[in-house]
Amino acid sequence: NTAAPAQNDDQVERSLVLVKPDGYRRGLTGEVLSRIEAKGYRLAALSVVEATPEQLAAHYAEHEGKPFYEPLVEFMSSGPLVAAVIEGHGCITGFRTIAGTTDPTTAAPGSIRGDLARDWGLTVQQNIVHGSDSPESAAREIAIWFPNGL
Ligand code: IDP
Fold this sequence. Notes:
Order of helices and strands: EHHEHHEHHEH
Subunit structure: Homotetramer.
Family: Belongs to the NDK family.
Strand content: 15-25%
Number of helices: 7
Number of strands: 4
Binding site for ATP: 20, 68, 96, 102, 113, 127
Structural class: alpha+beta
Largest sheet: 4 strands, antiparallel
Distance between the termini: 30 Å
GO molecular function, one term: metal ion binding
CATH architecture: 2-Layer Sandwich
CATH superfamily: Nucleoside diphosphate kinase-like domain
CATH topology: Alpha-Beta Plaits
Pfam families: NDK
Bound molecules: inosine-5'-diphosphate
């Protein structure tokens, strides 16, 4: 019996996930979504988009001025990406756990970044995915990538 247990839908948590252009280009979107679903989180929204400069400036506002900011924005503009809203209790921390730590060289095996990403010797770490880091970030980021609602 593979049916998931009924979820308590009161205040179910949502997180914004991006499959970054490296993941999309490498054909890893299905793998990422499959790990999200296998973990038991539900896809609430899904979209393939080319990020606008305004979206990236808003999404990465906290990193403006850092040495990797310009390369990060350039990388995130280098091709289509996949934006998704996932939901399930604990999914913000849960997704960041299955994503692995930021630096793909040391991200744990078994995680998305640990299994699928590596150091390419570039200024910016190309690490396949983004996941919101708090409920406040999730609400802010969902509004950036799904401005018309879910
Ligand atoms: P996170 O994606 O693991 O939450 P953040 O600190 O929010 O990490 O950084 C956003 C993105 O910027 C990272 O995913 C990575 O692509 C890139 N990045 C962060 N720190 C560095 C760094 O020190 N060097 C190069 N790229 C970085």
